[in-house]
Amino acid sequence: MADGDYERGRGREIAAIAAKLKRLRDGQDARCPRAGGPRLSRPPVFVLNGWAASPHAWDLCKFTRTRLFSYVEQLDGEPEKAMEGVERCVLVGWSMGGSSALRLATHWPEKIAGLVLIAATPRMMEEKETGWKGMSPRRLEALRYGLVMTRGEGFFGVPEGKPNPYLTDEPANLERGLKYLLETDLRADLERVFQRGFFEQQPGQQAYNNKMCERGPQTGNQTCERQPQTGNKTCARRLSPSVHIFQSEHDGIVRAANSAYLQKIFPQASVTMVPGTEHALSIFIPELIDEAVDTCIRLAAAGQDPA
Fold it and tell me: What integer is the mean pLDDT of 34-51?
């Protein structure tokens, strides 16, 4: 073979590989890693907002969402209707919406392609008998009062240059949301579904690393340092979803200890602890949330377990 023919052949091979990698990255040519597995498409992304939260809470995030569910729509069962119409999806939940995402995951674990949980908890309220860290009923009522009195800007106002993540609403809707927060406890369902073999564990595989997130006090830029962690990740019998947990270290609404519980439920999870007290993390670390959603979509489209 002449040198020119060889070089042209190698060039075509490299171009073909590059094109295939691009299709894999874009989720257009992904296959399940099992031989003969079906093609997988990019899953829809459902965003579940917090209690009394504004759609503007997501203005700084650039990921493409299929649908944003308000807390009232969550109370009305709209996410459940959406889940019935999809094969797989990525759920992004903040605060009360994080609770809704966990609830949906217990009902349709086989449909969950990824979870992004932001200030999420399976139980909002404290439980003194077991030492569960949460809000007292008095503090929850103060939260409602502060929301109304500040006309949707919360106790601390809106940071300069940031969209308002909260809104005021009809008193009846606010009360419905408070009732959900007071009464909901998903721990038993999570442990039943995810800790009893829905995803079989394979030994010798390392879990996602924890990350500490540092935000510059003036610029708001984020840098994250990975901390070493050992453990097994869940996989094998079903593809385990990519799970990303974001939590402020001193959040006064959802306690930081709750993220440790979620990591026990999802040992494959990436956990990012954010210094400070912010609850509406979508307006403070939107780039990190975008990255997490993109990872969920990319791995789901490629039919891969988190690694």
Answer: 76
46-74, pLDDT tens digit by residue?
999 999 999 999 999 999 999 999 999 99
Domain boundaries along the sequence of the chain = 45-302
pLDDT class of 250 with cuts at 50, 70, 90: very high
Quick one: CATH architecture of 45-302?
3-Layer(aba) Sandwich (3.40)
pLDDT score at 269: 96
Summarize pLDDT for 89-134 with one digit per residue, the tens: 999 999 999 999 999 999 999 999 999 999 999 999 999 999 999 9
Annotate the chain with three-state secondary structure.
CCHHHHHHHHHHHHHHHHHHHHHHHHCCCCECCCCCCCECCCCCEEEECCCCECHHHHCCCCCCCCEEECHHHHHCCHHHHHHHCCCCEEEEEECHHHHHHHHHHHHCHHHEEEEEEECCCCECECECCCCECCECHHHHHHHHHHHHHCCCCCCCCCCCCCCCCECCCCHHHHHHHHHHHHHCECHHHHHHHHCCCCCCECCCCCCCCEEEEEECCCCCCEEEEEECCCCCCECCCCCCCEEEEEEECCCCCCCCHHHHHHHHHCCCCEEEEECCCCCCHHHCCHHHHHHHHHHHHHHHHHCCCCC
